[in-house]
Write a structure and sequence with these properties.
single chain; mainly alpha; Transcription Regulator spoIIAA; 2 domains; two-stranded parallel sheet; 13 helices
Length: 375
């Protein structure tokens, strides 16, 4: 069978001419390169391999697989394989297959010291901070252009993003906030029941939800839902070179893609936080009135007296900061995404982790500042 498909010619010095004929389709069976390598062994002076094909050659990916193996075998023996005699389509497929070979990943030095690893991590953190500050600067410049009416801003896209950030997340925010309010009421009742002070459950639920928890829970929900979607969308656009196309057209990606997302999230976060406040208080009310048999009117009166307007403003400040953190984290990770499917997944995960970490750090800082100011 090999003689029908392979013919060897040594008429040119130091050159092996391989004539391909017959059926090279997968259905006819894949051939091994051993026949060719044995010829190279018996003729060690061979420095180049050429090809010629017959008129009735039938081939598919079976021929490509054979040629790839042969090229790799010859590469180890420093033998040049000329592909000019192959069909044009086969040459293109071979070029494509050789391009997408996996890159060799250099092994890490197992003896790398702790100081070297710490230095690498410090450099990575420094580069990330520099990229983040640079991105914030681009956003500030783009906002200035938006205010002066010079930016590329599509209001239709903006309204769709507002809908995604607001109406489409109401159900999830409602469920989480209601359950958090109910959990706070349960936990508070266990301790307050010992002193006969169950009515102060309203104070615990109202203050905790309005001051911090509603904003934090809403921020975490938006980070997992909206921040991840921002990173995935922009990451896919980066992978498909759509962002490069915008730059080629002279359109700033930050103005066209990032600013609408940041503004939509900054606008909707306070609205969702107020809604979460009401749902959390409702959850505490359901548990207190339905299971602990407290007077509903007295519960609402206690809530009204406990929750001050300053607490509402503190919660709204939390929500504004969280909106900026989630939007910037998602858009930054999407814009900086590597151009591969794995890169999109890494960017999405990184956006969620960065957003939640930023929310926790911002909560600690704002709480500390409010404590100093006596708010």
């Amino acid at each position: 069978m090999l003689s029908e498909k392979l013919t060897f010619d040594y008429s040119i010095p130091k050159t092996l001419l391989i004539k391909l004929s017959g059926d090279w389709q997968i259905s006819a069976g894949l051939l091994s390169v051993n026949e060719v390598t044995s010829q190279l062994t018996t003729h060690p002076d061979i420095a180049q391999i050429n090809f010629s094909v017959s008129q009735g050659l039938k081939w598919d990916s079976g021929l490509i697989a054979f040629l790839l193996k042969l090229i790799r075998e010859c590469g180890q023996k420093n033998i040049h394989v000329a592909r000019e005699g192959l069909p044009q389509e086969a040459q293109k497929l071979l070029a494509l297959a050789l391009k997408v070979d996996e890159k060799d990943i250099p092994p890490k030095d197992a003896r790398e010291s702790f100081l070297e690893r710490s230095g690498e991590k410090a450099l990575q953190i420094s580069e990330s901070l520099a990229a983040g500050l640079d991105f914030l600067g681009d956003i500030a410049v783009s906002l200035g252009r938006l205010i002066t009416g010079k930016s590329y801003f599509r209001w239709d896209d903006f309204m769709l993003i507002v809908q995604r950030c607001g109406v489409d997340t109401l159900l999830l925010v409602s469920l989480i906030s209601l359950l958090v309010g109910m959990i706070l009421a349960f936990v508070g009742s266990i301790q307050l029941k010992m002193f006969g002070a169950q009515i102060f459950i309203s104070d615990i639920v109202g203050i905790a939800m309005v001051r911090v928890l509603s904003a934090v829970m809403t921020g975490i929900i938006m980070s997992g839902r909206i921040g991840a979607s921002f990173a995935a969308e922009l990451g896919m656009m980066q992978t498909n070179e759509e962002i490069d196309a915008l730059k080629t057209l002279g359109v700033s990606p930050v103005e066209f893609l990032v600013i609408p997302r940041v503004l939509a999230l900054v606008i909707m976060m306070p609205v969702l936080t107020i809604y979460a406040d009401l749902m959390g208080i409702l959850g505490g009310f359901v548990i207190s009135a339905g299971m602990l048999h407290l007077n509903p009117v007295e519960y609402l009166n206690h809530t009204q007296h406990a929750v001050k307007l300053s607490y509402v403003w503190v919660g709204l400040i939390h929500s504004l900061v969280f909106g900026v953190i989630v939007a910037v984290s998602g858009c930054l990770r999407g814009i900086k995404c590597e151009r591969s499917a794995a890169g999109v997944g890494i960017a999405t995960t990184s956006a969620v982790v960065t957003g939640i970490t930023g929310i926790v750090i911002a909560t600690a800082l704002i709480t500390f500042i409010c404590q100093i100011l006596g708010v």
